[in-house]
Write a structure and sequence with these properties.
Keywords: Membrane, Transmembrane, Transmembrane helix. By secondary structure, this protein is mostly helical. The protein has helices at about 10-30, 35-45, 50-70, 75-100, 115-125, 130-150. Helix 2 (about 35-45) packs across helix 6.
């Protein structure tokens, strides 16, 4: 049976994610989908694996949509970042509108989840996609392991 952490543990999960993301960046010079992404994905996996899978699907749509946008407009630097994150927010909001009746618990406390697909898609555009997916996955599972061990040892509050 999985350890379900209390909402108060979210700050710790994000902090561990930031720390491990920074270590990953310093060692490999690759961003694991953005600095807050691994911590948020690990917390989403703790809540419900389907939530993390939904974010992966929205990320794929955001990546494809952003590549199409790059063909239609000159996007680079801050304009590219803003366009990709905005595209992710629009797609995630669309998913929310379509699915909120069936799965209301997915969206109960998911504020950061609206920008995470855009952050990952932005890194997929800037870095080699395979390397980005690999580093995001590895750092996310490391964060997940740390917060699960913390929950099992009673160092983090359980729900």
């Amino acid at each position: 049976m999985p350890v379900v952490l209390a909402p108060e543990a979210a700050a710790v999960g994000i902090a561990v994610g930031l720390l491990l993301s920074l270590v990953c960046y310093l060692v490999t010079n690759l961003s694991p989908g953005g600095m807050i992404t691994p911590g948020w994905l690990a917390l989403a996996m703790d809540k419900d694996l389907r939530l993390a899978l939904m974010v992966a699907g929205v990320t794929a749509l955001t990546y494809v949509s952003s590549r199409v946008l790059q063909q239609l407009a000159i996007l680079y630097g801050k304009r590219l970042f803003a366009a990709v994150v905005l595209c992710g927010v629009v797609l995630q909001t669309t998913v929310y509108v379509l699915m909120q009746q069936q799965y209301p618990m997915f969206f109960a406390d998911q504020t950061l989840g609206y920008i995470v697909p855009g952050l990952i898609a932005y890194q997929l555009i800037r870095q080699p996609p395979r390397a980005t997916l690999l580093t995001t996955g590895v750092v996310t599972f490391c964060v997940y392991g740390v917060i699960m061990v913390g929950g099992l040892l009673g160092m983090l509050p359980r729900a």
